[in-house]
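Progress narrative, work stream C.
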Amino acid sequence: MKKNITTKNIDAVLKFLPYFEDDKNHFYDYHDFEKVQKKDGYVLMCPYYIYSKEVITFIETLYNENIVFPFDWGEWQEEAIRYFNNPDLIKSADTLTLRKLLTLHVRKDRFFDGHLALVIDSGHLISILKRLKELRSKIKNK
């Protein structure tokens, strides 16, 4: 079940658009394979990402503002790939589609570390947020 969202919810998310638009910002750190010394020898650690405080706050905001919602995002991945590979599709996406994309990207990052970094680096996240801003400008305050 997806909850309706309000302009207040959208506005809270859109506060992050300038942050993501500024390419001088540092969004994450990438750590390559590394050996970690343990009591009984070494353990090889797989590569991993650590997101900035602002990115973590953005993710929390998506949840707190009901932008992220439960749906079978795994079944919807092919549709999301269409939007990722063809940025012009974002220009006509509705609010529900944008919420699905944001939900998929945030949830997928929990299973595939670095997915959100790819979405940020590609400009896809900015496209989603800009479209959300465009749709928000057409909605009266609720």
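Work stream C, second folded protein:
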Amino acid sequence: MTLPANLPNVANARLPATYEAACNAIAECVRIDECADWANKAEAMAAYARMSEDDTLRKRCDRIQARAIRRCGELLKDFDGRGAHRRSDGADSSSTQRQAAAGAGMSERQQVTAVRLHNIPEDDFKAQVESDNPPTVTQLAKQGTKSRPLVDLKGRDPDDFAASTQAQAAVRSFAEMTRKSDARVIARGAFPEEIAPMRRDIASIDAWLDALSVSLGD
């Protein structure tokens, strides 16, 4: 979350007496704006703690802020980009994720950050946030970045797809060479010591192409 231009009075940003109470309250939030409010309060308190050089309070507030933002992301995941979906509580909703975030007073950047924090596996997130030196929200958001595939793999293993794409390119290149080159010319131009290695390569290519042809089916 962005640090408020005018830091609110710390008395107005009170957090529960215990850290556990704050965590429980955040986990029970059912509205995005509630979570965002928690995050803003924790951020304000963390800023105050830094100015007061109270590292213990600063870490506590950083943990609360991260948890609140992640909860925002969890609730935002109930909304997709089309608005055509059903919320996890079973109610119909026509709001897109952006509309839901904006309705809670969140900027697009804050929306993206919240979703990225939710992308981090829960156990990993908790271990980092509860560590002696919890990472910042920005550092956590980088971990939650998910690159979108350029191609819909339709269930294919990414490694299989990559290997197949590379091999298909090699087959096309080889086929293009055969269309342009006379095999008899290639044989005449070879030195005697090159013939045996060429025969071994041909045998390997033949066996591989036969296996590929069978695997492709009819």
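Confidence is low (pLDDT under 50) at residues 1-13, 82-92. No further action is required on this item.
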